[in-house]
Amino acid sequence: MLLSRGLTALTLILSLAISLNAEYLYKDDVVSNPNFAEQINAIGTELKAKTGISLYLVMVRDLDQNQSVAEYEKQLALAVGEPSVIMTFIELKQQVDILARPVSLYKHFNKVQILSPNATFIGSVVSSIMFARSYDEAKELIVNRGGTILPILAEKTKGGETVQKYSVAMYNGYSDTADQIAAAHGVTLSSSAGNGSKDFIDILRVVFYGIILYGVGRYVYGRFFRRRKDDNV
Fold first, then answer.
1. Are 57 and 26 in contact (CB under 8 A)?
2. Buried (b) or exposed (e) across 191-202, using 16+ Cβ within 10 A?
3. Pick from 88, 97, 79, 33: which is nearest to 59 by CA?
4. What is the DSSP string of 144-171?
5. What residues make up the domain containing 81?
């Protein structure tokens, strides 16, 4: 029984290794778009050639019961070997994580920034005011802004637009991670998105959070200042 389980596990690991080494978009149960796969694989191939580091993207609907994202990524890391970085998106849980092996690779990219829920300075300030429970938390939210995945995932969409949102978010995050790893090695990637898409997203966030701040300002004025003015009358 143990031998049979061992052979099954070994077969699974070997098959995963072959698949992952062949495609940097290792698994995609979410987008299933050939153009998306081609773009991801182009970036992954160039990054590997210039830095020796493999960056894999995994997109699945859900995990096995009681299995965490960290556990799933560690299984994949055993299959692909080192040095490698694995970016994982779990659709039903709306979770994103990045695992690097060896851990020294975390120095080559800013995981906290990439996975930040805030894309802009204004967004980080609003989040710190609304959610931070201490000065340190507020400072961390503001400093680690510039998220390239979660702000896009947070957008409300319907129907086919949701799948497009997933592809944009994960491509943006994958490209950002690849660019940072490349920069740490003193090279650039011709196949990545560069800063153009991030600048466009920043503009959208500035407009979005500007509207929020305007609404909050009107609420505060109506709730406190106008009431005080009426009381004085």
1. yes
2. bbbeeebbeebb
3. 88
4. T---SSHHHHTS---THHHHHHHHHHHH
5. 2-232
pLDDT in tens, 9-56: 444 444 444 344 448 998 999 998 899 999 999 999 999 999 999 999
H or E stretch at 198: helix 196-220
Q: What is the mean pLDDT of each run of 10 residues along the chain (233 residues)?
A: 44 42 81 91 95 96 89 91 94 94 96 85 64 65 76 84 90 94 94 58 52 65 64 59
Give how far Cα 151 sits from Cα of 28, 123, 194, Å.
21, 10, 18
Whole-prediction pTM value?
0.71
Give Cα separations from 97 to 51, 72, 86, 203, 210 (angstroms): 22, 11, 8, 25, 29
Q: Classify strands 84-90 and 25-28 as parallel, antiparallel or unpaired.
A: unpaired
Question: d(Cα 219, Cα 73) in Å, to the nearest integer?
Answer: 45
Of the candidates 26, 93, 41, the residue with the CA atom closest to the CA atom of residue 62: 93
Domain count, the chain: 1
CA angle, 163 then 164 then 168, to 5°: 120
Nearest to 49, CA basis, from 24, 27, 18, 26 = 24
Tokens of 178: 């690849």
Point out which residues pair with 54 in neighbouring strands: 84
What CATH number corresponds to the domain at position 33?
A: 3.10.310.50
Buried residues in 145-168 as b, exposed as e (16+ CB within 10 A): bbbbbbbbbeeeeeeeeebebbbb
| 85, 100 Cβ separation under 8 angstroms | yes
Per DSSP, the three-state class of 118 is coil
